[in-house]
Amino acid sequence: MMNSRQIIGLNGSWSATLEDWNEPGKTISREITLPGTLDEHGLGPVPSASSEHLTRKHAYEGRARYERRVMIPEEWRDKVLFFGMERTRGTELWIDGIQAGSCNTLSTPQLYNVTGYLDPGQHVLSVVVDNASGIMSWKSIRNSHMATDHTQTNWNGILGDIELTAVEPLRIGQIRLYPQRGGEVRGKAVISKPADGTAEGRLSLSILDSAGSKLYVGGEIPFRLEAGSCDREIPFIIPASDALEYWDEFNPVQYTVHAVLEGTYREQATADELTVPLGIRTFGVAGTQFEVNGRTTFLRGKHDACVFPLTGYAPMEKESWLEVFRTAKAYGINHYRFHSWCPPRAAFEAADQSGMYLQPELPFWDPGTAFQNDEEWQYFSEETFRIIEAYGNHPSFVMFAWGNELAGSMERMEALVEKARSWDPGKLYAIGSNNFFLHAGLPGNSDYWTTFWTEGSWNVKKAGYGGKHVRGATPHPTRGFINNSPPSGRKDYREEIRGVSLPVIGHEVGQYQVYPDFREIDKYQGVLKPEHLIRFRSLSVSSGLLEQADNLHAASGRLAALCYREEIEAALRTPGMAGFQLLDLQDFPGQGGAFVGMLDAFMEPKGIITPEEWRRFCSEVVPLARLHRYVWTEGESILWQAEIANYGPEPLTDAAVIWSITGADGGQIGEGRLTADAIPQGGLWSAGECEFRIPAISKAEKWTLQLSIEGTAYNNEYSLWIYPDLLDISIPASVVVADAFDENTRRELRSGRTVLLIPPAQGSFGSGPEGTFIPDFWCFPMFKKYGPPGTLGLYCDRDHPALEAFPTAAHAQWQWWHLMRHYRAIVLDDSAADYRPIVQVIDNVARQHKLGIVFEAKVSGGKLLVCSIDLWSQMDRPEARQLLHSLLNYCSSDRFTPGAEWTEDFTESLFAAKEMSVVAGNPNADNYG
């Protein structure tokens, strides 16, 4: 049959009239192209540069009128007419100077019934878009990623399809689909008509594959609507069929349901048809994990804050979202959490095709009074069902949460869960993401719990209280296992989730800062300027760090990747854990600049780690080594348990786990093989205990433990540091070891001696940042009130002879963990611009001091090597003995020839108390403790 729905597309030229931001009371009119925003057309005042987020080049906030003429054809007479805009802000619609209605949905298309306003002939359509008043003035929305300038921006305009649609008075209003376990599809069709007149007819349903072939044709379903009735809901069942495959991340097969209506309205023959997406899938809970079609899955999630720096809004085209999801899947991601916003239809369509599990949220971020205001409660309740109605048939739409870190009316949050669950039982629901986090507690009647801890109270005065975290780091530097528990491959969250009866997802896992790549500045060719990045680059020039920027970026990035890996593996090592949501694979340009991603704000790689490397530990199947530690001594036995996290599509049969240990030169040192009839799907499987005794070695070495599953591409590897047991750390006669830059030390230097300066046991030098292993959490201005050191790891001159006997990469790795926990960095800002420490501490981008913990200079005719790590209290650790050995060897060699020459006064000033640069705190931090 011919489609009875007719469309007039209205994308194109419109007249825009705005309030004049220079002369109040006057207006400005321009011809613009829609879809688009005023920012894209260069309309609006130029705001001051922001130090907290990307700066809009033009930032218009207020009422803007968009107007154009439209010709209604004669054949549309007696039709039901709708005017639709796919995405915008709060709007009013005016037709020929008469207001036809208003609408304020932000998450779904705005659809106006304009029947009676548009007779055949020419008319003037006027849309007033208001991004300043009404709901757009609510803090709960302006905080959300649907409207905040920290990410999406509070644009004014109309996006996506803009169109007029004519349909028959008797029509298919909507179709809702609920696939069932076993493959059956239950559904409801809503038949609509005007209130007057009777209607009757038949509804038929068929299922089509992506090529348009019919795989199912159902019988006709009769219906009748009496006068006075506008809608009738018709239930139906599509039986399970072997011809229909299940949809999931591994097999994202898509179908459509095609509904055809034939009948009469007011005794006139009429017809309509509607096509909606279908994926045969169920997504549910089994114990403390999720099931897709009865098969256990593990959510490897990414946080999405609507960061699209060229436009300031989310793409409305499917192909753009396909590219986004292709990138994410290349890094092993199978789940997206849309933080306090809901993406457009194109994202759901792309996720359906890609096999991505989505959790949208309401445009809602209120950490104090959520749902307590009656007007807001009413709005967000209605927005909930608008979202479900608009996107609910997409198989990728599996979860729904009310917003980010909400606190307020638990009663209303739970009531909305119950109502949504009864309306669409095919999804899982939660009262929010990390709600009521100041005092951890189960999330009411939610189907799952997204949280960063399962027990604990957030109090800045009790920074040492750890709670039960399900992520490895927090704003408190004394919380989180990665920075506060000696490194091993054994940490998991069994204890943290013990007694929790529903699935737990780690909330906003990671947040490890990376020193920025300032070349990214040139990518900002759209509506936003990276003024804060430009300011940070200027600071790097004045601090003398710009020439090192590439090295600092790479070194901090590799440490961040190491910490992300530990986060992910800890979750995978936990039986019964449901998943994690990273913050983030991608940079977040707001809140002062949180450059925490392996990808930049444009979802483009930073060159830190390849997708293939990342997928070793973030994939559907991951081999894991539950190592006791990463630092070993000759004669010891390296012990580990080999495990496989298998959340792939099926068990792995006739499997063998192969392990090998190789040296720095790639030569094999040891190997082994563990066999099994099958590695079961849907959990963590132990392949067995492994042991390798370290033979005698003559020098420190870095080894690599590799694990792989024979016959597959699944593999993983771990770095090990192996040190000699007996090591000469006696002080050579040519070297003076001192613990203070005092008169004795000066006297030795004046006499031409070589001095190695190390703080006394349990002591420290200077007043620079205290030692820490992990990169600063999120961004320094945001959480500086918790007193973090604010540093981003180390940059090591790995080829310097001082480190010759201490194998290291240019970045910090696990052999540095104890050493980094026992240093105090020395501020070297007043040294020559080209002066470089041997081991440099990377400062955060908002402060950018030149910091060192191993550095050298000629002083008063002598030679001085400073190590501000407390080595003496760690002589029981092989890595500390090895570093001391390496430094002593260097000091006693003829290669110790420092290039810099310092006076005694200058050298003394390095150890004097001094203030670090003052960095203004981000006011958003006041929401957190």
Task: Give the helices and strands, then pairings.
Elements: E1 6-9, E2 12-19, E3 27-34, E4 36-37, E5 55-56, E6 63-72, E7 80-87, E8 90-95, E9 98-103, E10 110-113, E11 121-130, H1 139-142, E12 157-167, E13 171-179, E14 185-192, E15 199-208, E16 214-217, E17 221-225, E18 231-238, E19 255-265, E20 268-278, E21 283-286, E22 289-292, E23 295-297, E24 299-304, H2 318-330, E25 335-338, H3 345-354, E26 357-359, H4 374-391, E27 399-401, H5 410-423, E28 428-430, E29 449-451, E30 453-455, E31 468-469, H6 481-484, H7 494-497, E32 504-510, E33 528-529, H8 531-542, H9 549-572, E34 579-583, H10 611-615, E35 621-627, E36 631-633, E37 637-646, E38 652-662, E39 668-679, E40 683-693, E41 701-709, E42 715-723, E43 735-738, H11 743-750, E44 754-757, H12 780-783, E45 791-796, H13 817-820, E46 826-827, E47 839-843, E48 850-859, E49 862-867, H14 878-891, E50 901-902, H15 904-910
Parallel strand pairs: 24-25, 24-34, 25-26, 27-28, 29-32, 32-34, 36-42, 43-44, 44-49, 48-50
Antiparallel strand pairs: 1-12, 2-3, 2-6, 4-12, 5-33, 6-11, 7-10, 7-12, 8-9, 8-11, 13-14, 14-18, 15-16, 15-17, 15-19, 19-20, 21-22, 22-23, 30-31, 35-37, 37-40, 38-39, 38-41, 41-42, 45-47, 46-48, 47-48, 48-49
